[in-house]
């Protein structure tokens, strides 16, 4: 058995084109080919719309390889051939053709053919290389149809209630005001509501919806809105401040794009404009230098991809860049995995490889400025200002500081150390004199720290006064007039298909254009050929006629406000993505979004004022039995706070949070080693800033971000992972950050009157007063001799427990 | 099984979990009298039938290591090196050139198992290795294939293999997670590869790192023992209050469990991950110290220490196997990095009598094609249609090649093993029937193996 098979495979593997005898050929052509074509090709050929059983019978290679069930036939041995079993209807589970049995004559022909050794002159692939995608038929897929209005429904709630009603389910009651304002505050600005605003809302005598609308409007107007929602967008566009991959060099000017995004959300820049600016800001008209610069910075969207700088093949690197741009544009804006069509037609969605290269031509006619070039371009450790775009409204400045310059890091360190020393001195003084082992130990520790700081300060001061020559960590001026972005290439040209995705294996030239399935028949080609086509692409993407762009964005908004998207696979609206739970509602929202000038704030407000958003998370056993995933939205999802709001909330409660936006990023190093240190050990100027301003260095996320499922910055990630692991518990139990902030919150609390403190601690953290049981157990904790070493310590312990509580870490 | 408790069936467990074990856990904590009734979701459970292996060490080679230079001996490929071929078997269509194996193979052990010269140390254990030469999987793309290998699904969020195993069997050491993953790759599916999806969160893998900071925040610098327990009791009281109000929530129950486990881990973890406790001879055996082998050596030694302490499922990972180029150079470095550590692990397990009930599984998300990546490029494209993984230890018949690719090494043709079959076999060796290990979610019983999977009988001892 083994031996003939081996031969058969060798025959298939190597081009041993043994000449067929004329008689064999004639028999095949006259008898076998028509038979196979008539009865088998419908499911077993390159032309099959859906190949069955993985078996091709329209080429010799096809049956030689066999299908999912194994070898189709064994030349010379009809009785051992699966094909014969199937056509003879020997086996109940394998009968071919499935709908009727072949005539005796036809079976005899196949038998004779196999007995002859199955001579077969047909060439061709053993795999269905390109099933022609039927674009027209694919337009029926829900996501490619234009959103349709539902005439009898006007509100979000009407849509949700209709589905609940169909399932005979009743929704949970509305959430109480304290729960609601906490939810709204974290959702909109990523921070807890101040106790004062909670009290005001609870007291507000207006009806619920009206009172809540006032709360929402205040939050929407806060600068925190852009900081929170800008970060959501940064997840989607794989924002990172370094190259990642094999040569992880810093992007010291990436922050300009970050700030642009935050500002865009704060200004409520219409989403269509927002998308156009990011794709083609450089091609849009500007009235001033400042506006020109803003538009340039917006195109950083295309320049921030993570690429392999070690790629030696220049063309490969160039096409990898193009691929990255197609991928991020497709998934972020359209929710389509367009990048999958690089090597072959898309396996699941109606995106032929030629559509991919129609887009590729657009991006290939675009020059991208990330500050680096690939290995063949000669990347060295530093970075190239000439590979960035220059800004007009920012004065030109020195980029790389040369030797003998004082390391600003050293200056900062000196200040920092001096402040620490001052603090230690204060603590020493506060501790005063006294006995007791514990106090003695604390004193000794502080003194030791004092000495070590004094030594460090002397060392740093020497560094500042007498900087060494040839610094190891050259820095760049992060405020210099540079940005990442794109420009039109000098040579505008259509791209040739890369056969199998190989950059040097060129096929036909494809005219630049868009995805056919999203265009009217014959309208997918670019109208002009003068420019790259990015501007046209941007307009096409944001056309109200585009069925996906608005849907994808409102679904993202819904995802962040309700916990899951109506389509839970927020970055994939294609065939492998999920179908919407409420298709009519999704359409309704998409239409409203466009109608209201693509205003994110208007849409967010509308969703939040719905009863659907305002439901409590109460558990209803009947509903849970029918719909445990809560897809029908009978209650609010209990949602976990993401890494940034979790951290920012702790800093806000401890009174340490600095709300102002810092200028730039702490990543002003020109080398990857220094960058890594800076990213993981934040200096003081950054430590207490909002998390959105912390550096996002690919491969070196701070531990906190890693533990709490921050978005992987090399990937389009509209939906973050949610893990619940003991490392998170350990973080709350033991991490210095949590303990320090708990101590500072306790210090802050001591300013309140003694009898108010417990209530205040709960209100600050959980947005509500303690229940009588909580009051009792908290008192017991505070007075416990094991805890109550000193008053401040006990209160710090309580704050830490509150920070660690599930109620603090979750929105309900 | 280590448990002396009466047999707990899947259905019993299901009932317990659907009532919310976290809730029960707290009830137990609050009333000592009721503590007896509390069953941790991680408590050891009886297998369906006699288990050959008690634990798994899964060595994941992220990127898709070439089987053609490692464990799949293909003399025909060597003979045809450089030839153009139009064969569909090796993919690529017209005019691709075959790339012969870049390293020589030789027979090893009394079984004469063919192993390449890249694994001189591991080859000494040839008689224990069962090479699965006929592996195939669904996707040739890294993220999908990696998630497939870990969860049995390319497109849906499903529980990972380790989570299923701990769900099925619990774990014998309640002070350590039942499922630990050391240095998990960040990309290629990320946390999904050790996630619990719809299974209770307690079954999720806990990521650890090698080195001094194997796990961050394992000690508290101020609150010790009793005092910290009191603080934790307060936290858990708050949590119970919330759960009372929300009533049922799997994730919140997971949070509650995670605090209890974290508390116990504080004493258990530092001891088990402190490699300094090992003798210089042991470290040498694992290749700890020399730069080439240090990282994986530490992972292997940590895996052994965790296995010894009763952790049920341990995954160790190493990346960089995506040799589109550098078959000659980078692949060699990679293999050198794992060869001695793996051999050390096997020797060590043997010495301790643990190899017989520890299942070792090695492999990547797919293999590589027998053709060159591009003209004159020292690399191979992805290949999901035929590649190699290997198993050794508990219940495995060593010293054999099971299954085969075609003579050129491109496509699995004989005794093919799909990922579902691999999963079914791993569960079988652990004493579980993959068709019976189910979890009811959203109205349906889910399995690791979906509706497929067959136990690969031919590799069982």
Spell the H/E element sequence of chain B.
Answer: HHEHEEEEEHHEEHHHHEHEEEEEEEEHEE
First-to-last CA distance of chain B: 20 Å
**What gyration radius of chain B follows from the Cα positions, in whole Å?**
23 Å
Task: Walk across the major sheet of chain A and give the strand order.
Answer: 1-4
State the CATH superfamily name of chain B. Alkaline Phosphatase, subunit A
Question: What sort of overall outline of chain B do the alpha carbons produce when their principal axes are compared?
Answer: globular
Structural class of chain B: alpha/beta
Shape of chain A: globular
Tally of strands of chain A: 8
Tell me the radius of gyration of chain A.
33 Å
Key words describing this protein structure:
heterodimer; A: two-stranded antiparallel sheet; two-stranded antiparallel sheet; 35 helices; disordered N terminus; B: alpha/beta; Alkaline Phosphatase, subunit A; nine-stranded mixed sheet; 19 strands; about 30% helix
Gist of the model:
Chain A is mainly alpha-helical and 812 residues long. In chain A, α10 runs antiparallel to α23, α11 crosses α12 and α32 runs parallel beside α34. Chain B is an alpha/beta fold and 461 residues long.
Explained architecture:
The complex is a heterodimer of chains A (812) and B (461). Chain A contains 35 helices and eight strands. Among the domains of chain A are: 2-131, no CATH class; 408-465; 640-665 and 708-811, no CATH class. In chain A, the strands form four sheets. In chain A, strands 1-4 form a two-stranded antiparallel ribbon. With 812 residues, chain A is mainly alpha-helical. Chain A is 48% helix and 3% strand. By secondary structure, chain B is an alpha/beta fold. Chain B has a single domain (40-215, 277-459), classed as 3-Layer(aba) Sandwich (Alkaline Phosphatase, subunit A). Helices cover 32% and strands 16% of the residues of chain B. Chain B has helices spanning 10-19, 21-30, 75-79, 142-151, 161-169, 225-246, 250-273, 280-286, 291-308, 330-351, 419-429; strands at residues 55-61, 84-85, 96-97, 105-108, 113-116, 130-136, 179-182, 206-208, 313-318, 358-363, 367-368, 382-383, 387-393, 400-402, 404-405, 412-414, 417-418, 438-441, 444-447. In chain B, the strands form six sheets. In chain B, strands 1, 6, 7, 8, 9, 10, 13, 14 and 17 form a nine-stranded mixed β-sheet that branches. In chain B, strands 2-3 form a two-stranded antiparallel ribbon. In chain B, strands 4-5 form a two-stranded antiparallel sheet. In chain B, a hairpin with a 6-residue loop joins strand 15 (404-405) and strand 16. Chain B starts with 9 loop residues before the first helix and ends in a 14-residue tail after the last strand. In chain B, 61% of the residues are buried.
């Amino acid at each position: 058995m083994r031996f003939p098979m081996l031969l058969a495979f060798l025959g298939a593997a190597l081009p041993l084109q043994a000449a067929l005898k004329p008689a064999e050929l004639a028999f095949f052509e006259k008898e076998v080919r028509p038979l196979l074509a008539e009865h088998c090709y419908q499911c077993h050929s390159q032309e099959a719309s859906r190949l069955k059983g993985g078996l091709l019978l329209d080429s010799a290679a096809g049956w030689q390889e066999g299908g999912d069930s194994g070898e189709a036939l064994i030349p010379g041995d009809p009785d051992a051939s699966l094909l014969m079993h199937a056509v003879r209807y020997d086996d109940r589970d394998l009968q071919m053709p499935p709908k009727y049995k072949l005539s005796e004559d036809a079976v005899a022909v196949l038998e004779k053919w196999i007995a002859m050794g199955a001579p077969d002159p047909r060439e061709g692939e053993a795999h269905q290389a390109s099933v022609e995608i039927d674009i027209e038929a694919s337009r029926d897929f829900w996501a490619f149809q234009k959103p349709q209005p539902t005439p009898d429904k006007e509100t979000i709630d009407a849509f949700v209630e209709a589905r609940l009603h169909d399932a005979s389910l009743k929704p949970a009651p509305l959430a109480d005001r304290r729960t609601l304002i906490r939810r709204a505050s974290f959702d909109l600005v990523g921070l807890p509501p101040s106790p004062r605003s909670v009290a005001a809302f609870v007291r507000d005598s207006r009806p619920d919806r009206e009172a809540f609308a006032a709360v929402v409007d205040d939050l929407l107007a806060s600068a925190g809105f852009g900081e929170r929602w800008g970060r959501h967008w940064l997840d989607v566009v794989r924002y990172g401040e370094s190259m990642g991959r094999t040569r992880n060099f810093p992007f010291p000017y990436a922050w300009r794009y970050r700030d642009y995004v935050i500002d865009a959300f704060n200004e409520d820049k219409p989403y269509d404009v927002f998308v156009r600016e990011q794709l083609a800001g450089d091609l849009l008209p500007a009235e001033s230098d400042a506006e020109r610069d803003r538009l340039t910075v917006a195109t950083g969207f295309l320049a921030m991809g993570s690429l392999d700088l070690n790629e030696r093949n220049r063309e490969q690197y160039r096409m990898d860049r193009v691929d990255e741009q197609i991928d991020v544009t497709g998934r972020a804006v359209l929710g389509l995995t367009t990048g999958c069509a690089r090597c072959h037609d898309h396996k699941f969605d109606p995106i032929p490889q030629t559509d991919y290269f129609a887009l590729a031509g657009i991006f290939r006619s675009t020059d991208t400025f990330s500050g680096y070039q690939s290995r063949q371009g000669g990347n060295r450790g530093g970075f190239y200002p000439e590979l960035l775009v220059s800004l007009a409204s920012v004065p030109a400045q020195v980029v790389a500081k040369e030797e003998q310059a004082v390391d600003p890091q050293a200056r900062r360190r000196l200040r920092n150390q001096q402040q620490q020393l001052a603090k230690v001195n204060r603590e020493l003084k506060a501790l005063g004199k006294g006995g007791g082992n514990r106090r003695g130990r604390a004193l000794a520790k502080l003194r030791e720290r004092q000495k070590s700081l004094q030594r460090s300060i002397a060392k740093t001061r020497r560094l500042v006064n007498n900087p060494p020559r040839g610094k190891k960590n050259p820095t760049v001026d992060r405020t210099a007039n540079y940005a990442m972005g794109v420009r039109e290439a000098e040579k505008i040209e259509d791209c040739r298909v890369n056969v199998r995705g190989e950059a040097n294996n060129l096929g036909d030239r494809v005219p630049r254009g868009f995805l056919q399935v999203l265009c009217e028949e014959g309208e997918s080609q670019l109208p002009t050929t003068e420019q790259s086509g990015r501007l046209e692409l941007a307009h096409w993407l944001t056309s109200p006629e585009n069925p996906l762009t608005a849907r994808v964005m409102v679904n993202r908004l819904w995802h962040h406000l309700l916990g899951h998207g109506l389509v839970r696979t927020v970055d994939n609206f294609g065939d492998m993505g999920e179908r919407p739970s409420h298709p009519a509602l999704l359409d309704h929202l998409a239409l409203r979004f466009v109608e209201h000038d693509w205003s994110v704030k208007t849409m967010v407000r509308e969703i939040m004022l719905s009863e659907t958003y305002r439901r409590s998370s109460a558990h209803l056993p009947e509903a849970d039995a029918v719909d445990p995933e809560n897809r029908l939205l009978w209650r609010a999802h209990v949602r976990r706070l993401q890494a940034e709001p979790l951290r920012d909330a702790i800093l806000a409660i401890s009174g340490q949070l600095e709300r102002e936006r810092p200028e730039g990023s702490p990543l002003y190093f020109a080398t990857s080693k220094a960058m890594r240190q800076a990213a993981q050990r934040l200096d003081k100027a950054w430590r207490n800033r909002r998390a959105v301003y912390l550096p996002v260095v690919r491969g070196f996320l701070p531990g906190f971000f890693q533990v709490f499922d921050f978005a992987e910055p090399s990937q389009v990630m509209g939906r973050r992972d949610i893990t619940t692991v003991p490392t998170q518990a350990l973080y709350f139990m033991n991490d210095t950050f949590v303990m320090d902030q708990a101590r500072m919150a306790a210090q802050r609390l001591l300013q309140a009157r003694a009898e108010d403190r417990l209530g205040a601690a709960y209100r600050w953290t959980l947005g509500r007063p303690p229940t009588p049981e909580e009051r009792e157990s908290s008192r017991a904790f505070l007075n416990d001799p094991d805890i109550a070493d000193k008053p401040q310590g006990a209160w710090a312990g309580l704050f830490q427990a509150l920070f660690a509580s599930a109620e603090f870490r979750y929105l309900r | 099984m280590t448990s002396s408790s009466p047999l707990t069936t899947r259905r019993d467990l299901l009932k317990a979990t659907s009532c919310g074990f976290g809730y029960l856990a707290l009830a137990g904590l609050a009333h000592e009298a009721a503590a007896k009734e509390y069953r941790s979701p991680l408590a050891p459970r009886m297998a369906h039938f006699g288990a050959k292996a008690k634990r798994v060490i899964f060595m994941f080679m992220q990127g898709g290591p070439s089987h053609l230079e490692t464990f799949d001996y293909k003399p025909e490929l060597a003979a045809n090196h450089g030839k153009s071929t139009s064969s569909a078997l090796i993919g690529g269509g017209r005019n691709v050139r075959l790339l012969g194996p870049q390293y020589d193979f030789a027979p090893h052990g009394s079984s004469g198992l063919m192993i390449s010269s890249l694994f001189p140390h591991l080859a000494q254990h040839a008689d224990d290795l069962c090479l699965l030469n006929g592996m195939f999987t669904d996707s040739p793309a890294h993220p999908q294939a990696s998630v497939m290998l870990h969860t049995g699904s390319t497109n849906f969020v499903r529980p990972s293999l380790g989570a299923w195993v701990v769900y099925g069997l619990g774990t014998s050491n309640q002070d350590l997670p039942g499922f630990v993953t050391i240095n998990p790759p960040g990309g290629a599916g990320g946390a999904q590869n050790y996630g619990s999806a719809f299974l209770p969160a307690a079954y999720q893998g806990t990521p650890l790192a090698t080195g001094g900071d194997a796990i961050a925040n394992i000690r508290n610098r101020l609150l010790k023992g009793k005092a910290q327990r009191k603080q934790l009791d307060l936290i858990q009281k708050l949590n119970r209050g919330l759960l009372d109000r929300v009533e049922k929530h799997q994730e919140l129950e997971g949070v509650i469990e995670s605090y209890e486990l974290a508390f116990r881990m504080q004493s258990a973890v530092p001891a088990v991950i402190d490699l300094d406790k090992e003798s210089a001879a042991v470290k040498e055996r694992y290749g700890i110290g020399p730069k080439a082998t240090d990282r994986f050596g530490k992972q292997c030694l940590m895996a052994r220490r965790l296995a010894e302490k009763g952790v049920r499922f341990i995954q160790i990972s190493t990346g960089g196997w995506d040799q589109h180029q550098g078959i000659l150079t980078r692949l060699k470095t990679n293999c050198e990095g794992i060869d001695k550590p793996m051999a050390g692990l096997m020797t060590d397990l043997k010495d301790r009598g643990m190899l017989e009930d520890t299942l070792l599984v090695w492999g990547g998300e797919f293999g590589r094609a027998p053709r060159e990546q591009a003209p004159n490029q020292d690399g191979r494209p992805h290949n999901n249609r035929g590649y190699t993984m290997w198993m050794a230890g508990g219940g495995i018949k060593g010293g054999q090649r099971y299954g085969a690719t075609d003579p050129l090494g491109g496509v699995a043709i004989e005794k093919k093993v799909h990922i579902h079959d691999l999963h079914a076999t791993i569960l079988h060796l652990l004493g579980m029937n993959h068709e019976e290990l189910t979890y009811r979610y959203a109205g349906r019983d889910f399995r690791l193996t979906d509706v497929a999977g067959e136990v690969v009988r031919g590799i069982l001892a």
